[in-house]
Amino acid sequence: MTQIQRVGLVAKHHLDAAAGVLAELAGWLEARNLKAVFETDTAALVGLPPGRPTSSRDELPRNCDLVVVLGGDGTFIGMAGRIAQSGSSVPILGVNFGSLGFLTEIPLGELFESLEAVLEGEAQIDKRVMLRARTLRGDGVYADRLVLNDVVITKAALSRIIDLSVSIGEQPVMRVRADGLIVATPTGSTAYNLAAGGPIVHPSMDALLLTPIAPHMLTNRPVVVPGSSEVRVQPTMDGANDEVFATFDGQFGHPLETEDIVEIRRAERALNVVRAPKRSYFELLRQKLKWGER
To answer: Which of 4, 40, 141, 164 shows the smallest number of beta carbons within 10 Å?
Structure first.
């Protein structure tokens, strides 16, 4: 890992509770001759004096050697997408405010201990698979997104059940009549995929998950395929009431048209995630899902 000299700081929008922590964190970094680079909105949140280095969220991955995110999983996912889009390999450390998150898994009380481990080269860095999802329309690419959790093809609120053809490369896999379909990474297996009845898959696995949402046929079951697979999803729309949408990590989306194809494959780069030093993945699952409680 690159020697860390600049640490990017990002907080959830309007997270006033983070202001004091950010100020303390900046002082902690500067005492170690490290530069704190505040994301622009985060700088305003903490009341940073003029003249201090700031960066937009899109540019932050290029301007630092480590990104620290304070907030929840949504803030983490947003920064993960920006890191991937920038082509950077900068690691990301997520600090949770509130209940323990699956992605922002480091509690506030372990922030400085976790940072110390990163600076000393002792932290465990997990490589999390990301997906590149392209919407093919006509002879061109209508949309191109990088996602950490999932790509979801779903119906509009008032439309009927939708019909989706799913293939791996040129090989047909299944036809799904359902409310939609989730294509998830192992990291995303504990997100929408879990709520839809899909399996939990350890994030170190090289796999993609295909999970129908409320399928019309009980034989439409979740399927786990190799991570090298190229998944192609094409909706069949034959009526005025058919409204189908593609959403990417729950943060971006667009309606699909007849003959559109959503092509999903493993992204070129993995995301480097700093693991919580005192908590294994299975401990995280037990805490978050309350396994073992009566």
So the answer is: 141
* Structural domain boundaries enclosing 164: 131-266
Report the CATH number that the domain containing residue 166 is assigned in CATH. Answer: 2.60.200.30
Is 73 among the residues known to form the active site?
Answer: yes
Residue 200 maps to a domain: yes
Longest CA span, the chain: 64
d(CA 119, CA 57): 23
Give the model confidence (pLDDT) of 150-202 as tens digits: 999 998 877 678 999 999 988 999 999 999 999 999 999 999 999 999 999 99
d(C-alpha 176, C-alpha 165), whole Å: 6
In a domain, 294, yes or no: no
Clarify whether residues 28 and 118 are in a common domain.
Answer: yes
Is 24's pLDDT higher than 90? yes
Mean pLDDT computed over 205-213: 97
* 41, 58, 73, 249: the active-site residue: 73
Assess if residue 106 is contained within a domain: yes
Number of domains composing the chain = 2
Which residues have C-beta within 8 Å of that of residue 148, sequence separation ≥ 6? Answer: 77, 80, 81, 84, 103, 128, 130, 131, 185, 187, 188, 249, 271
The domain that holds 51 is classified in CATH as 3.40.50.10330
How would residue 238 be classed by pLDDT, with cut points 50, 70 and 90? Answer: confident
Q: Alpha carbon of 95 to those of 14, 217, 281: distances in Å?
A: 16, 41, 16
